[in-house]
């Protein structure tokens, strides 16, 4: 799996029909077919269903609001 730098994000949330899993200060994401693996600033790895799986919706907030998407 290829990783992507997401240190520009303040947080990201994975929403499952109103049940929200929030990750503060994410630094890296590994994007798989059916999962995302997110490493936070404390080096904790969170494995979640990718958007579209189990009704998952992904949202995030960048530190720089003038640049909302980095990749």
Walkthrough of the structure:
The mean pLDDT is 95. By secondary structure, the chain is mainly β. It has no helices and 7 strands. It is globular and about 30 Å long. It has strands at residues 3-5, 9-16, 19-24, 26-31, 35-40, 45-49, 56-62.
Notable features of this structure?
71 residues, mainly beta, 3-stranded antiparallel sheet
Set down the secondary structure blueprint.
Layout: E1 3-5, E2 9-16, E3 19-24, E4 26-31, E5 35-40, E6 45-49, E7 56-62
Antiparallel strand pairs: 1-4, 2-3, 2-7, 4-5, 5-6
Strand content: over 45%
Helix content range: under 10%
C-alpha-based Rg, rounded: 12 Å
Which stretches are poorly predicted, pLDDT < 50 over at least 5 residues? none
Largest sheet: 4 strands, antiparallel
Structural class: mainly beta
Strand order of the largest sheet: 1-4-5-6
General form: globular
Can you describe this structure in just a few lines?
The chain has 71 residues and is an all-beta fold. The protein contains no helices and seven strands.
């Amino acid at each position: 799996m290829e990783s992507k730098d997401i240190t520009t994000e303040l947080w990201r949330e994975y929403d499952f029909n109103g049940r929200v899993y929030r990750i503060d200060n994410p630094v890296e994401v590994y994007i798989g077919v059916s999962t995302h693996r997110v490493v936070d600033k404390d080096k904790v790895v969170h494995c979640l269903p990718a958007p579209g799986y189990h009704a998952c919706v992904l949202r995030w907030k960048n530190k720089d609001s003038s640049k909302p998407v980095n990749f």
